[in-house]
Amino acid sequence: MKRPLLTRTSLVGMLACTAVATALVSPAGAQSASLSARPGLRMPEGSVVLPNLDDDARRCTMRPDDLDRLDVAVDERLAACNDAADDVVNGAEDAKDLTPLTVAAMAVGKGARARVSLPAAQSPYARVFVVRDGKYVSLGSDGRLGAEELRRGVRLAVEARDVVRDPKRWDGRIEVTLSVAEHGVTRTARADMRVAPVLLQHDLQRAQHVFAAAPGPGEGQPVEVPAAHRPPGQWQEFADSLRKAAKESGLPDSGLRFQPGTSQWWHDIWRQDIAEPGYVTRPTPHGPQTLRILLRSPNYWTSADGRSASLRRAGRLLYRDLRGPGVGVVQQYTPTAQREKNVDELLNFTGNFESLPPYAGHPQGRILYGSSAERRPDPSFVGMLTAQGQKQPVVLDTSWLLVGHVDETVHVVRANNARGWTLAVSDPRKAVELLKEARRAGEGGQHLFADTVADAKPTVDQFLRYEEHAGDNEDAARRIDGQLSVLLRETGLKPQEIVRLPVLYFRTEAGEGLPKRHIALSPALANGLSLTSRDYAAPSPHGPQVAGRDLFRAEAERALATGGVRVHWVENFSWAHLGGGEVHCATNALREVT
User: Fold this and answer.
1) Total Cβ atoms within 10 A of residue 285
2) Are 586 and 574 in contact (CB under 8 A)?
């Protein structure tokens, strides 16, 4: 497959060319005596600084009741523990996450005084260390360097203490200034550095670690997020088929992990919806130094009496199971009382946030998410995503969907075109055409979903009559046409490049005073998990059969094979589909950084 001229990693390398500025400052009345050497700050590995939010020494721990307590203080405490939270370097691995900065040796007298400083507005967001006696020591707010250190030359190192969240508060710049004073003259040198942007991974990157839910004990019904009251079922069928798909794609057994929840909330099985994985990277002589950054979903709950508040408890699994060396977690949210009325908790699930791969004009790719005037995700979370320096996100109207996520209808897949990828989308018209094909083959009396635990199992004829009367699928198709018009305009893809996958829809009640919204009646085939660019784990559709052949399966396999993609079928009808999601919703993956 052809690669874009600029990749995410190469763009970060370009940022390393930022220059070092040097200036002369002479106080009023100072003599014109000059120093024997000008101060200098050098950036041997470039100007990019990592937000040091992982836990290399595994010192961050959880308390026994942390998974269950409905208390936002738990979430704040968990998020506050990371390598940048203290003023020490936590071992050799932590040192690799720092960006080196050196002070050139200077010919100064004993009376020379020096200070390394950051602008006051930047100091909460970065820290500078000095190497003394072979150890990293935080310079703190004082930042003093001695004359003897200046004569020898000084090794410094810089870490960022956060990601950019709101550019009005901090735009990611880290301006390190060295001031050297002697004989009444102060000379300065400045290194202009910048925190690495968080880049979202995309579906063409190979999955290295996949995680999914498993049943827990007890009732398990969460109170803090919208969840179906029907308990997820047939986990063993789901797990066995997912294991088979992962193995066939080349993922080692250790790369797939199932996480049971607790007796209070294990029905919240939507692992895609608790975090959107990203990464930060900087160039080094030994290759890129990379940290994974998991962006926790901004799901915020407040009790009816207003006395209790909590983030989504399933999201705390990120701290228990994933945070550690090379992996950090970021949470950004707006409390309920401060939200605008059109912020929809379902749209805060991170299955509503995806990433388009790099393409011409967009070397970092683009964020893709669902929003509308009626229903939108937390603006502070969206603001954090857009603050990473990518061009404007692609926004789709998902308000017509009951759940409202972009992953319900759109998925990036490999293609044999110039850019190497295209989009797979739900196609209700194709699904209805295939039902008509089954009817023409004499299968009008066949029951849909006959081999599942579905409550409703209409015949092909019954569903086609219903569609002729209600028009649910034609309406869904028009809505997807609207999404496609945006996607084609923003990506430059051609209509003939789009992969269309058959999915049946129906409209259902969305709540008192709200219009009916669509949900997939047959498993949504675009809502699958890419294990590699050529291996796609899709929900088994249980479509109409003709001569023992599932027409939905066959059509999906044919359409995806045109791009060199092999389909691995996962049984998720009872575990995920009947709860409003599919394979993609019920899994998440940490992907190879390319």
Assistant:
1) 6
2) no
Q: Please state the φ and ψ torsions of residue 66, each to the nearest 5 degrees.
A: -65, -30
Give 517's contacts (C-beta < 8 A, 6+ positions apart).
399, 400, 401, 402, 404, 507, 508, 510
Angle at 406 between CA 304 and CA 314, to 5 degrees: 45
Please indicate, yes or no, whether the overall pTM of this predicted structure exceeds 0.90.
yes
Question: Cα–Cα distance between 112 and 245 in angstroms, integer?
Answer: 67
Closest C-alpha to 196, from 6, 8, 12: 12
Cβ–Cβ under 8 Å, residues 376 and 343: yes
179 within 8 A of 115, measured Cβ to Cβ? yes
Q: Which two tokens stand for residue 30?
A: 């100072």
Q: Identify the bridge partners of residue 447 per DSSP, sorted by sequence position.
A: 459
Q: How far is CA 276 from the centre of its chain?
A: 3
145 closest CA partner among 181, 94, 172, 199? 181
Tokens of 554: 């066959």
For 134-172, letters b (16+ CB in 10 Å) and e give eebebbeeebebebebbbeebbbbbbbbbbbbeeeebeb
Length of the chain: 594
pLDDT < 70 positions in the chain = 1-37
Question: How many other β-carbons are positioned within 10 Å of the β-carbon of residue 360?
Answer: 12
For residue 24, count other CB atoms closer than 10 A to its CB: 12
Cβ neighbours of 341 (radius 10 Å): 5
**What's the pLDDT at 37?**
64
Token output for 485: 């018009």
Determine the Cα–Cα distance for residues 431 and 501; give it in Å rounded to an integer.
Answer: 8
Q: Nearest 10 degrees: CA dihedral of 457, 462, 463, 468?
A: -160
CB 427 within 8 A of CB 500: yes
Query: What's the pLDDT at 24?
Result: 34
pLDDT attached to residue 141: 86
* β partners of residue 199: 279
Query: Can you say how many angstroms the Cα of residue 212 is from the centroid of all Cα atoms in its chain?
Result: 16
> How far is residue 146 CA from its own chain's centroid?
44
In angstroms, rounded to a whole number, what is the distance separating the alpha carbons of residues 177 and 192?
Answer: 9
Helix axes 428-440, 551-561, angle to 10 degrees: 130
Q: What is the DSSP letter of 400?
A: T
Longest dimension (CA), the chain: 102
Check: CB of residue 253 under 8 Å from CB of residue 566.
no
Decide: residue 549, CB within 10 A, 0-12 exposed, 13-18 middle, 19+ buried. Answer: exposed
340 vs 337, 343, 377, CA distance in Å?
8, 6, 10
pLDDT tens digits, one per residue of 264-293: 999 999 999 999 999 999 999 999 999 999
* Residue of 143, 164, 163, 169 whose CA lies nearest to 82: 163
Q: Cβ atoms within 10 A of the Cβ of 111, count?
A: 9
If we measure between CA atoms, which residue out of 320, 291, 293 comes closest to residue 93?
291
